[in-house]
Amino acid sequence: MGYTTDRRSFIKGAAALMSSAAGFSCIEVANAATIEVPTVDRLAMRVLIDSAHDQFLKPVTVQGVRHIPPGSGRGADYRQVLHNQWGLSLFLESQRADEARTIMLDFGYSPDALLNNIGILKVDPTKADALIVSHGHHDHYGGLNGFLDKYRSSLPQDIKLFAGGEDNFCHRVSPAGQGQFTDFGQLDRRDLAAQKVTTVLCETPTVIAGHAFTTGQIKRSSVERILPNTFVDRGTLETTGCNADHYTPAELLGKRVPDDHVHEHATCFNVKDRGLVVISSCGHVGIVNSVLQAQAVSGVKKVHAIVGGFHLGPASPDYLKEIVAEVKKLEPDVVIPMHCSGLNFALEAKAQMPDNVLITTTGSRLVFGA
What we know:
Elements: E1 3-4, H1 14-20, E2 27-30, E3 42-49, E4 60-62, E5 65-68, E6 89-96, E7 99-105, H2 111-121, E8 130-133, H3 138-141, H4 144-151, E9 160-163, E10 171-177, E11 180-183, H5 189-194, E12 198-201, E13 206-208, E14 212-214, E15 231-233, E16 236-237, E17 240-241, E18 257-258, E19 267-271, E20 275-280, H6 287-298, E21 303-309, H7 317-329, E22 334-338, H8 343-352, E23 365-369
Helix pairs in contact: 2-4, 7-8
C-alpha cells in the first residue's frame, strides 16, 4: 500500500507554518487501499531504550528467538554506561534476500539517553529508511527532536515519520491527584516541518519501507479495556495541537477527557516460516486487540512473537490473569514484555506460559528468523 498527500487544513496557523517551511509538505495521509503484507527472511531488534538494565542476563534461545544481551552495557570506556528511563526505543533491521531495511521505532523519553545508548551500542541510525512513532506520549517521542538535531543531515532527504493518526499532536496532561494535572507535552509538527521530515498519518494499515506494516487504528474487539493513563486536550493551543477540524463539536468543548488512544498503532513484520512479530510499544488499547488487528489486516494467523509494552503494570490481579489467558489463546511462540508491561505481567505470563516468555534489558538484541 502506498500513501497519498492530503491537503486537509490541520490547525489554525497552518498556512504560516507551511510558509515558514518554504513550501515543504509536512503531512501526508495513508490511503485506505488493501495492503499486500511483505514477508522478510529475518528481523533483528536492538532495544535502545527501556526501563532497566540487567548485566547478568545470558544469551538464550526461546522458541526460535535468539536473545543476545549487551553484557555490562559499557562501551570501550568503562566510565560509560547505558542509560535507562521510562520509555521505549527500538532499532529494527530486516532482511529479505539481499535487500536490507532499517526502521527506528519510538525515541524514548529524552534525547540524552537515546544518543548515549546509540553511541555505546554502535548502531548506525543513518541507515534508517523510515521513522515510526507509536503514539503521542512523551516517553515515546521525547528523544525525537534531539535525535533529528544530531542525525537529520545524514538521514535520507525524503525520510518520513509514520504516525498512527492526527491525535499524535494533541496536548496531554497526567493526573496528579485531587483533580490536579501535570503537563505531559505534545508532539509539535512545527519541529518536524523545520527538520523537513514529512509525517504520514497511518490511520489505515500501511506498509513501511517495503518490509514492515502498521495495523492502522486498532479495533476494540476483545475483553480488554484502557487502564488509567493520560488525559487529552483536543484542538489547537495557539499554533500547535491537533487539528480541530478532525474532531466533532462535542470533542472540542475544551474539557480534558480520558485518553482513548484512537491514534495508537502497532508495528509488525511477517517473518518467513515463523509468522507475525507484533510490536506494541505501549498497548493502551489492548495487546490482544493489537494482535487481532495485525492478523486481520495481514491475513496471517500464526503469531511468532508479541513484543513491547502492554500497559498492564497497573492491572488488578484478576484482570491480569484474564488478559494473560487471552494472550495464551493467541498461541504465540514467544512473548517479550518491555516498558509498561509490568513485573506483574512477566510473572503471570511465566506462570501461565512458562516456555514462551523471554525477558530482555536495555541494550538487548533479538533475532527472529534465520
